[in-house]
Amino acid sequence: MEHVPRERNQEADRLSQLSTEEYGTMQDSTSVEWVAEEAFRAKEVMYNASEGEGRAPGPWYQAIWEFLSTEDLPGDPPVANKIQRQSLRYTLLDGAFYRRSFQGPLLKCVTREEGLAAVEEMHGRMYGSHVNSKTLTQKMLRSGIFWPFVAKDA
Fold first, then answer.
1. What are phi and psi of 149, to 5 degrees?
2. What is the DSSP string of 61-110?
3. DSSP symbol at 23
4. CA-based, 20 to 30 A from 63: which of 10, 74, 82, 138?
5. Phi-psi category of 57—alpha, beta or left, where left has phi over 0 and alpha has psi -120 to 50?
6. Which residue in 43, 35, 42, 34 sits closest to 126, CA to CA?
7. Distance CA 9, CA 121 (A)
8. What's the distance, Cα to Cα, between the start and end of the chain in Å?
9. Are strands 96-99 and 90-93 parallel, antiparallel or unpaired?
10. Mean pLDDT across the chain
11. What confidence tier does 134 reach under pLDDT thresholds 50, 70, 90?
12. Which residues, 6 or more positions from 99, have their beta carbon under 8 angstroms from its beta carbon?
């Protein structure tokens, strides 16, 4: 590794200042290339109740999904009570299952496999952020996806 004095490192200085300036106000001839690339690619999940024999698309939210879509509860009172309480944090919109977050938008609920694929895309690509698990978890939630083990899997 070689130390480069600030006087000879103007390009790096200019790049570090780009995030605080508006695009049209740059004074010198710094060229900016915009890369339009999604942070992750979510798989579309289609669900047809007649084909799925009444099963929900994801195992971890199956009972809540069924309660929200049909309002049917299991016969066991403690289990039914738990599902009713948990369902207050979730909603169905246009056939998609979302969790209500405390601070931001609705979080799309995904299966663990889809979540791990999103972690790989956010963390492991060439342009991915190589951060610790807590920061990656927060980034995943800000991007709008959720599964119960997001913190453990990140």
1. -105, 30
2. GHHHHHHHHH----S-HHHHHHHHHHHTTEEEETTEEEE--SSSS-EEE-
3. G
4. 138
5. alpha
6. 35
7. 32
8. 31
9. antiparallel
10. 72
11. confident
12. 89, 90, 106, 107, 109, 146
Q: Which two tokens stand for residue 135?
A: 């920061």
Task: Name the strand (E) or helix (H) holding 14.
Answer: helix 10-17
CB 154 within 8 A of CB 136: yes
Helix H or strand E segment including 113? helix 112-124
Place of tokens 């480069």: 4
Give the contacts of 125 (CB within 8 A, at least 6 positions apart).
none
Cβ-based neighbour number of residue 94 at 10 Å: 5
CA dihedral for 76, 79, 85, 90, sign (positive or negative): negative
Does the pLDDT at position 118 exceed 70?
Answer: yes
Question: How much is the pLDDT for 13?
Answer: 72
Angle made by CA atoms 36, 26, 142, in degrees to the nearest 5 = 40
Q: Residues in the chain, how many? A: 154
Q: 123 φ, ψ to 5°?
A: -105, -35
Cβ partners under 8 Å of residue 26, min gap 6:
18, 32
Report helix, strand or coil for 99: strand
3 state DSSP class of 91:
strand
Phi, psi of 42 (to 5 degrees): -85, 140
